[in-house]
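Self-study notes.
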Amino acid sequence: MIPESGEGFKSGFVALVGRPNVGKSTLLNALIGQKIAITSPVAQTTRNRLRGILTLPEAQIVLVDTPGIHKPHHLLGQTIVKNAIGAISSVDATVLVVDGSVFMGTGDRFVAETILQSNVPAILGINKIDMLGEDAEEILASYESFAAEHGWQAAKFSSVTGEGLEALQAMMCDRLPLGPYYYPPDLVTDQPERFIMGELIREQILLLTREEIPHSVAVSIDQVDEQPKITRVMATVHVERDSQKGILIGKKGQMLKEIGTNARQQMQKLIMGSVHLEIFVKVQPKWRSSRFQLSDLGYRVE
C-alpha cells in the first residue's frame, strides 16, 4: 500500500552513471541495504537499467543503476550505451560515480560532458576511498577541483565500508522536488524476481569464467514453479559459440554445477526459501548483433 506523503516530503529519480567498473552496482546495493544488482570484477557487468528504491523518513529516492558508458563494438553495446545516456536526461539528478583511487580519465570526462549537456543537476560521487594510496591527497584534490569548476558538490564515500553514504544520501535528497511516494515504503526494486534470478546466474558466470566468457552470454528464466516447500527454476544460458558452451559446462559438468550451486544460494536469499535450479546452455551465433534476439532476451532495442 502506498501511503500519503507528508508536508515537505520529497521524491524523484537519481541516475548512477559512470564508466564501467567504478562501483555503481555495489553503490546501489549499499544504499538499498540488500543485493538487487549484480557485481563482478569484469567491466560492463550491468546491461539493463535497474531501479532500486530507497525510502527515507523525509524522501523516496528511486535510484537508476545504468550500464557503464563505453565505446560499443556491437549492437548490444550500442543498445547498452544508448539506454544509459537516455537515462541521464529522464531523471531529477545524477551521480557521476568515479573511482577515487585513481586519477580522472578520459572516460570519466566523456560521461561528465554528457551530463553537462543534459543540464540535469549532478553530484560527483568519489567512490573507493577505502582503497586510497600514496597519491590520495592529489587525486582527491583533482576531483574536487573538477567538481567546483562545474558547480557540482563532491561526495567522498566507500560502497564497500559504507563510509560517507549518509552524506551522499543527503545531497541526493537536496536535489529532489517535493512529491509523493511512488512505491510502497517496503519495496526495494521495481524489477520482477525473474529478472533478478537471471542476473544472479549471469553474475556467477562472470565471476567464475572471467575473461573466458566475457560478455557473449545472456540468461533467460524459462520457468518458475512455486510450490509450498520449494521453488523450482529452469533457466537457459545463451552463448555465441560451441567453445563457450564447453567452457560453461566444464569437465564432467563441474563448471555448470558450481555456477548453479552459487546462483541457487543467492536466489534462496532473494526469495527467503528453498530453490531447485536447473540450467541449460544453448548456442545462438551472433545473438549480440541480432535485433530480434536482443529483443527476445529482454533488451530494449530502439
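Second protein, same conventions, sequence then structure:
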Amino acid sequence: MTAAHGQTGRAILLMLGAVLIFTIMDTLAKWMTQHYSPLQVVWSRYTGQTVIVVALLAPRLVPLMRTRNLGAHMLRSVFQFGATACFFAALGQIGLAEATAIADLNPVLITLGAALFLGERLGPRRLAGVLVSLVGALIIIRPGMGVFAWAALLPLGTAICYSGYALVTRKLGASEPVWTSLIYTAIVGTAITSAIVPFHWQPVAVEHWLPFASVGLLGAAAQLCMIRAFSMAEASAIAPFSYMGLLFATLWGFLFFGEMPDAMTGLGALVIVGAGLYVWHRETRVARAAGGHAGQSEA
C-alpha cells in the first residue's frame, strides 16, 4: 500500500509538472502569435518535438514505430493536432485564462463521448455534470452579448479535439510504449503543418529562434510527463490536478500580458471546474463499486 501511495504521489507530481510546462508553452505561444501566424507557431511546436524525439530515440525509432494500431495512432495524432491548432489560434485573440477555462470542458466531454462512442453508461448525475459544465462555458462565451467573440469558440474546438484524443487513447489502452504515441503525434503534426505553413510563412527574426525552438521542447517535455503520469496511476487520482492549469494560466496572463479575467469569466470557470470535479468523483465511485461488486448499477 505504501509503495502504491508513493507511485501515485510521483504521478501527481508528474501531472503538475506537465500542466505547468504546458501553460508556460501556451504563454510563449501567445506571445509568438503576436508576431507570427498561429500556424507557424503550431509548426514549431510539432517540428521541435519531432527533432527531439528522433534525436533521443534514433537507435530504437523504427522498432518503436511498429504497431498493429496504426489507424488509431494516426487518428489520435490528428485529434491532438486539432486541439493544439485551435488553442494557439485562440491565444492571439482572447485571454490566456479565458481560453484555458473553456478548453477545460474536456473532462466532461470525455465522459459524454465515452457513452456515445465506447458504450459506457451515462447516468443522470454524470449527464447533469456535462450540462452544468456547458452552462459554465456559455457564461464565459456569452453568445448574443456585446462581449461575445467568435474566437472564444476556438478553445471549445480544443476541448472537443482533446476529448477525441483521450477517447482513442482509452480505446487503444496501454498495450504499447508511451514513446510510440509521442513519435506519431510529433510526426503527424509536423507533416500536416509542413504542408500548409509555406502559405503562411513569415521570416523569423534571429532573436526569435530560441522561442520557436523552446515551444517544441516544452511541448515534448510536457506530453511525456503527462503520458508517464497516466501510466503510473489511475486517471481518477491524477486527472483533477489538470485544473491547476487554470491557476497557472491566470497568473501568467496577468504577469506577462496584463490580463485579468472579469467576474463572469471567473464564475464560468468555477462552474466548469466544479462540474468536472463532480464527474471525476462519480466516475471514481462507480469504478470502485464495480470493482468490489460486479454488476452493481451505474450512477
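Instructor comment on the second fold: The CA atoms of residues 73 and 203 lie 33 Å apart.
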